[in-house]
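tmp note - Putative restriction endonuclease domain-containing protein
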Amino acid sequence: MALAAPKPERRYTYRDYLKWHDNERWELIGGEAYSMTPAPSRRHQMLVGNIFAALHAYFRDKTCEVYVAPFDVRLPAAGEDPDEASNVVQPDIVVVCDQAKLDDRGCLGAPDLVVEVVSPGTAKKDMAEKLELYEQAGVKEYWIVHPGDETVMVFCAGEDGRYGRHKMYGKEDKLAATIFPELVIELADVFVKSGDRGQA
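out:
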């Protein structure tokens, strides 16, 4: 039986997370619960769909797999029981190349690529808490998509595992993934507005 929503003063684990209402979406970062409701805007979902379509097409005949939210990614600390993990996130899109990390619950361990589309209520979390979490967890590449100014910030881990200075791409650019050199996405196709489709 599902439990009530988490309380802000408590620290939670994946074991707690599994007991919450199925019709509510949450993330855990450092044991702190973040609500994923209300649902994202239509523009947000359109951008997620456009990027997912490009990634899905690229990885169609490859061993890496692409998933779109809601999809649980558990990021336990070193030596931590996965059921006691205090970091459980639902990125907008993930690419996972290590099949051993995938199970019926989602992904256990760091995806190779994470994409987050910023919403007004998630900007700080995506650009601060999640940036730090993904770096520490070993996510090789992290894209932060800004719908308002139609840009994408790309962070890539160096040999020391740290994210260096990010690369910035605009709507007129081609985004070239660092860890997948042949993956190139036309951002004009990503940021196209629904009314623009089909126009010359």
